[in-house]
Amino acid sequence: AVAAATLLPVGGALGAPLPLLLRRIGAAGPVAVARAWALNGYGSLVAGVGTIVAAHLVGYAAAAFAAAGVYLAAAGVAATIRSPAAADDGTEA
Fold it and tell me: What's this model's pTM, rounded to 2 decimal places?
């Protein structure tokens, strides 16, 4: 129960960006959604291998801080992406 209470908020925070981004770009069509899924898969593969290599080279703490930085950068980029419908009428989705 303690593990679930600890991991649930972190898992929710780390797992929320892709569905939110897919909802935002879904109006652009299936190509944009497929591209988002492809980039997610590529990022997962590179991050998994890259984290292991980074942890061995610079230590686990440095790898964790680098991962946090990448998540924050991705959140910043995702925050700047507007849905195509919002871009057409000037409102935010």
Answer: 0.67
Locate 76 and state its tokens.
């910043």
Three-class DSSP category at 91: coil
| Residue 39: strand, helix, or coil | helix
CA distance 83 to 22: 10
Buried-exposed string 46-84: b where 16+ CB fall within 10 A, e elsewhere: eeeeebeebbeeeeeeebeeebeeeeeeeeeeeeeeebe
Do residues 76 and 21 make contact, with C-beta atoms less than 8 angstroms apart?
no
* CA gap 84, 24 in Å, rounded: 8
The fraction of the chain above a pLDDT of 70, given in percent, is 88
Across 67-77, average pLDDT = 86
Helix, strand, coil % over all residues of the chain, rounded to 5: 90, 0, 10
